[in-house]
Amino acid sequence: MKANTAIGIAGAFVILGLAVILEGGNPAAFINIPAFLIVVGGTAMATLASTSMESVKRIPTLYKKAIGGSTLEPDVAAKQMIALAEKARREGLLALENDLEEIEDAFTRKGIQLVVDGADSDLISGVLSAETNAMASRHHENAHVFTLAGGFAPTLGILGTVMSLVHVLENLDKPSTLGHSIAGAFLATLFGVGSANLVFLPVANRLKELTREELLYRDMLHEAVLAIQAGDNPRMLAEKLETFVPPEARGRDKESAAPAPAPGEHLEAA
Global pTM? Predict the structure, then answer.
């Protein structure tokens, strides 16, 4: 399910809200602007100090990516590569040049372009591996931003609580306000621990999971491009690529296809 990250985060907040209500608490009591500013603003500035401005600017896009989930379709990509392999066997590698514009994935298009240009397998493998390693490095940096935020948020929450308690101790001569002030002081810790464990770290882990999926996807395409360049049998290539496709997607076409006729029966021509 693509929306599992959004469902999980939203569900966690709903459960916490229900717990507060069931205990007889008032959700409005958890609104504390100073504590929110300390945790969110402090975490943002500490994260910025630990990484680059470019990484911080990508945060909104990364949230969308984590919540949107993977758009990769390895079964569709495998069929496309098998079709290219069959064409290359029939018409030669140069015939694949006509299909380059129809290949949407830039990684696949670069690999097929190298094949059409006559590059040897070592050069193709080196270029595709460099592309994959660069992608993995970028993705690691993206997830690292949220990991950093998940580490800073609880600490900033404790810092906010200490600051509030100092203010409480300055007003011990006003016992009627102590309860409210102490409760507000601990909200900073709640915001820090909550944001780290319900938002930042789950998003970081989701981005890492998406990276693992894309690395496997690129490994499949890498194998396919080298097989096409080597002129491997498309049937053998299909067997190899099937290992990269999730089991639930492997028989998708077979299940939707019409059943084979029984012995002695013939299908009428359409």
Answer: 0.82
Question: Rounded to 5 degrees, what angle do the CA atoms 61, 66, 71 make?
Answer: 95
The domain locations on the chain are: 1-20+33-246
In the chain, the largest separation of any two C-alpha atoms, in whole Å, equals 99
Cα separation, 102 vs 91, in Å, equals: 18
Q: How confident is the model over 190-209, as a mean pLDDT?
A: 94
38/41 Cα distance (integer angstroms): 5
- C-beta of residue 58 within 8 angstroms of C-beta of residue 233: no
pLDDT in tens, 123-165: 999 999 999 999 999 999 999 999 999 999 999 999 999 988 8
| Neighbouring C-beta atoms of residue 172, cutoff 10 Å | 9
Distance (Å) of CA 220 to CA 77, 94, 99, 140: 9, 22, 19, 21
First to last CA, the chain: 38
